TrEMBL record, chains A, B, C, D, E, F:
InterPro entries: HD/PDEase_dom
Domain HD/PDEase, residue spans: 26-151
Source organism, top-level taxon: Bacteria
The name this protein goes by in its record: HD domain-containing protein
Pfam families membership: YfbR-like
Gene3D superfamilies: Hypothetical protein af1432
Native source organism of the sequence: Alkalibacterium iburiense
C-alpha cells in the first residue's frame, strides 16, 4: 500500500507484452510503447505549435505517459480480437476501469487520489492534446506492425493492424501534425526495399484515397 | 476458416504465458501447462482406479486437455488480480465464453461443432473427472508457485497462489488421489533444502489443519 | 524418489527444445509439442469415429500424451541428423529405452510400475490408435517446419522435414482422417501468401503424386 | 534522413539493455527506464507542487523523457565501470555529445534543429526540474538494483549501485519530494522479507546518517 | 559440402545449450564454453611454463578449442544423466565419434581430412596438454555450477556437478597449475557472501581432504 | 583481485552482445564470436601452412582468442556508428586501452602482468598471424551479416557490414588463405536460394572487381 506499490507496478509494465499469443519478430512491452508514444506526441505537438496552435504541454505529456497504465490489470487484450464484438470490448474496458478505480483507492495516498483519478482516466478526448494522443498511439502501432510486415511476418493480422492504424490517423487529417506525418514521414517509411513493399504501398494509397488525400510516394516517380 | 485455423491456434497457446506482468524465474506457457495438467490428471485417475473408483478416461482426458483453450482469446488474466472482485471475474469469464462460442461457429466445420461446443465448455463439474481436473489444475499451479518460492522469488503473490492452490486441493480431500498426494507427494516436495523452506512447511501445516487433516512432514521427525 | 520426481520431470520437458543447434524463428518445447500432438490426435480420432471407426480413446490419449516423455533423458536428437545412419539411430533409441526402464524402476512406486512401463513404451504400433499417433506427430512436425519455411528460414533442413512429414502422413493414406487432412486442411495451410509459397506447393504436389493421390490445391484454380 | 530516422531510433532504445555484461535476473531497456523515470518525476513534481513549489511541467517532462536518448550511439556504458577514472568518463561523455550533435544535423529537419539541440542536451542542471530529474533517475536505478539484491544476485556491483543511488538522492535532501521518498516510500521498499534484508537496511541507515538524516524504518519497531 | 558447411556449423554451437532440460539462471552455449575453456587452458599453461614445464602451445590450443565440437551432432547429453550406466555413456560416445568421422569424410576437403581427423579426436590424453584440457574443462564446469549454487538454484544437480568437477581437478593435483588453482583461485571463489556459502566451503574442504590436500580457505580465519 | 576476477570476467563476455541496439534475428555474444574467430583462424593458418608459409601457431591462437577481450569494459561499440568520425573512434579505442591497462595492474598477479599486457594488446599487426586475425575477424563478421541478410533483415546496416567485411578481407588478397576463401568458400555461401540472393551476389562481384579479382560464382553458369 502506498506509492511504493505504484512505483513497483511501473516495472510490471516492462513485463506485459503487446499483442500476446501471436508470433512476432520483435516484442514490445507496454512500458516501452508508452515511452515511444510520449516521444512521438512530443514531436507532433512541436509541429502543431510550429503551425500556430497552442499546445497544453502538461496535459499532452500526462495523457501520453499514462494512456496504457491500466494494462497492469488485465494486460494488452484490446488488439483486434477477431471474435469479440463491440459489446464485448466495451465490457472489457469497463472491467479495466473498475480495477483502476479500485487500485487508486487502495494504494494512492488520499491527498493525491484526485490527481491520479484524473491522470489515469481515458485521455483520448476532443481536446487538441487528446487528438494528438490518438494519433501518436496509432503512429507507434503503425511502426510496430510495419516492423513485422517488413521482416516477412506471415500473420495477416499485422496488415490489418497497419490498415486500422493508418485509417485512425487519417480521421485526424485536419491536424497539421497529421499532414506532416503523411507528407514527410510515411513516404520515408515506405520507400525502403523490403518484402511486400509494393503491397503495403498500394494499401496505403487506397486508405489515403478513401480519406480524400492525394499523396504520391517518393519512390513512385 | 476451418480446422486449419484451429490447428494454428494451438501454437498461439505456446505464446501465451501464465501470470503475465509479474517477475518469474520460469515462464510457463498455456500449452505446457495444459500438457502437465493432463499428465497429472492421468496419474490421479490411476490412483482413483487403484482405489476402486471407475474412471471415465475419455471424459477425463478431454477435460484436462481443453480446460484452458479459451485463453487464446483474452490470455491468462484469471490469476489472482488483487483489484478484481468476484463480479468482475465473472464478467471476464462471460466474455471468454462468448468468444469461444463465436470461434466455434466461425471456424469449426458444422459436422463437428456440437462436439467442440461440448469439449470447450467449462470442465470442472461435479463428476469424478471434473473433480480430478480441479485438483490436477491446482497441483500444477502449486508446483509452479513452489518453483518460484523455492528459488527465492520475493513477490508475495506466489505464496498466496501456493496457499490458494493447496486450499482448493483440500476441498477435495475425500478423493483417494488427494489423500495420496498429501501423504506421498507433498512431503517430498517440501523436504528439500531451500530458501523459505520452514515458512512454507508452516503454511502447509496450517492449511492442512484448517481442513482437519493430520499430516506430519517427513523432515519434522 | 517417488511420484514427486516424476511430477518434477514434467517441467523438464518445458525446457527441452526440439531440433537443437539449428536456427529457428520459433522454439517449441517437448511439453508444448506433446500437448499439440494430443489435441491433433483428438481431432483425427473424431474424424475416424465420424467415419464409422471405433476409437479406443483411452489408448489414443495415453499414446499421444506420453510419446516423447523419454526425451527427458537425452533430449530431442532424432530429428534428421544428416550424419547418422539407421544403425546409429537405433542405438540411440535403445539407449533412451534403457534409461526409461531404469527411471521407472527407481522412481515410480511399485504398485504403478507395470502401468508406467506400458504407458512409456513406444506407442506407434499397428493399432488404429498407434497409426493416429504416427499421423498426429507428423502433422505437428509439418506445422512446425511450415512455420519456419513460411517466415523465410533459409535452412534447407526445414524443407526436408516438411517433405519427410508429409511422406510419413501419406503412408497412412487409407485412414479417413488422413484423407480429411489432405482434402480440408493442407490446402488451407498452403493457400496463404508467403515466401516460397509456390515452391512448397510444388513439393507437396510431387509427394502426393508419388503416393498416387490426386489433389488440386484451392488456389490453383 | 528526416524524422523517420528519429522515430525508428526510438525502437533501438528498446534493444539497448542497461548495465550490459553483468548477470541480472531482470533486464531493463533504455526505453523502459526512460518511461519509469518520467513517471517517477511526475510524482516527485506532484509532491513539490503540493508543498508550494512552482513546477515547470513542460521542462520537467522534456528532461525526463530525453535524458538517456544519446545512448543510441554508444549504449549504456556509464554504470560504474570499476576501471575508468573520471577523466575517462568525461571523454566518453564528450564522444556521446559529439555524436548527438552530428545526428541532429543529419536527421532532424532544419526548422526543428534548435528545439532538438535543446531537448537532447544534458538535463541535470540547477533548476528545480533538473534536480527532480537527478532524483528520479536515481530512484529508478535504486529500484533496479534493489530488485537484483532482493532476488539474491551475488554480484556485489548491485549493492554498490544501491548505495551510490541513495547517496545521490540524499544530495537533494532539501527537496520536499526527497523527504517524502525517505519518509513514505523507502521504508515500504525495505520492509518486505527477502535475502539480505537486514544488510540492506543497515546500509541504508548508514548512508542516511552520513547525510544527517534521522529515519527509523517501519519494521525496526 | 566443403569448408562452408564447417564454418556454418560453428554457429550451430552457439545454439546448443549445455545441460538441457534443467532449470538454470544462466545458459551457456557450447561455443562460449569452448572459448572459456581455451582461455582457462591458456592461463594454466602459463603457470606450468612459469614452473619450468615445457608446454606444446599448438597442441594445447587445438585440444581446448575443439574438445566439444562433436556436440553439433547429438548435443550436450553427457552431463550426469542419473539413469545412465557407464555402458550407456560409452555407447553414446561411440555414436558421437562415428558421426564426427562421417562428417569429416563428407564435408572437409580431402587435403585437410587427416588434419581434422586429428583435431576433432578426443583430446584428453596422457600428455601435459591433455591433462591441462581435462583440468580447464572442469574449471569452467565448476564455475558454471558455482554460478548456479551461488544464485540459489535449488536443483541438487549443481552441487553434484561442483563436487564431480572439483574431484576430477584433484585427480591432477601433481600439476603446478592445479596447485595454483587450489591455493590462489578457489579460496577467492568461495570467499564471497552468498546463499549456501558455508555448505559449499564444507563440501570443498571434504573433497580436498579426500585427496590429502591441506587448504585453509581465506575466510576461515 | 587476482585471477578469480579474470576468470569471472570471461563469463561477462557471454553477456555482451555484438551490435547492440539493432534488430537482429540472431544474437552473437563476444565470447561466441571469439571462439568462432579462433576456429576460422585455425583453418586459415592451415591453408597458409599447406601453401608453404610458416605459421607461428602460438601467436596466432593468442591473437585470435584475446582480440576482443577489452570489450568487457565498454562493450561492442565499434560496429559502424554512422555518426562517429575517425577521431571519435580513436578516442573510444584509447579509452578501452586505458581500462585494459588499469585492469591488468589491479587484477593480474604481478608475475604474469607482462604476459597479459602482451596478450591483451591489439593483435592486428603486420605479421602473418596479425593478418590472419584481421581476415578471420572479418570472415566471422561477414557470416554474421550474411546470416541477417539471408533471413530478410530489412536493416540496411547489415549490407553495409557485409560490404565492409568483404573489402577488408580483400585488402589481404595476397594471402593464400584469402584466395582459398574467395575460390572455395564464398561461392558456396552465395549459392543457396534466399531473399536478396541476386543483390548480394552483385555486391560481391562489384567489390571483387574493385580489388581486381576475377571470380565467377558457381551459380552464374
Amino acid at each position: 500500500m502506498g506509492m511504493h506499490e505504484y512505483f513497483k507496478s511501473l516495472s510490471d509494465l516492462e513485463k506485459i507484452y503487446r499483442c500476446p499469443g501471436k508470433f512476432k519478430f520483435e516484442e514490445h512491452s507496454v512500458a516501452a510503447h508508452s515511452f515511444k508514444v510520449t516521444k512521438i506526441a512530443q514531436f507532433l505537438g512541436t509541429v502543431e505549435e510550429y503551425n500556430g496552435q497552442e499546445v497544453d504541454w502538461k496535459a499532452l505529456y500526462e495523457k501520453a505517459l499514462n494512456h496504457d497504465y491500466s494494462e497492469i490489470f488485465i494486460g494488452d487484450i484490446k488488439t483486434p480480437v477477431k471474435y469479440a464484438d463491440p459489446d464485448l470490448r466495451e465490457r472489457l474496458a469497463n472491467v479495466e476501469e473498475s480495477m483502476t478505480k479500485h487500485f487508486i483507492e487502495e494504494e494512492i495516498p488520499e491527498e493525491f487520489q484526485a490527481i491520479y483519478h484524473d491522470r489515469l482516466k481515458e485521455g483520448k478526448d476532443e481536446t487538441l492534446e487528446g487528438k494528438i494522443l490518438s494519433v501518436a498511439d496509432k503512429v507507434d502501432l503503425l511502426y510496430e506492425s510495419f516492423g513485422e510486415i517488413q521482416k516477412g511476418n506471415p500473420e495477416d493480422l499485422f496488415t490489418q493492424i497497419y490498415q486500422e492504424s493508418l485509417s485512425t490517423i487519417l480521421n485526424f487529417k485536419e491536424l497539421a501534425s497529421v499532414q506532416y506525418f503523411l507528407a514527410e514521414i510515411l513516404p520515408d517509411l515506405l520507400s525502403g526495399e523490403f518484402t511486400n513493399q509494393t503491397a503495403l504501398e498500394r494499401i496505403s494509397q487506397r486508405i489515403l484515397k478513401e480519406h480524400d488525400i492525394e499523396q504520391t510516394f517518393a519512390m513512385d516517380s
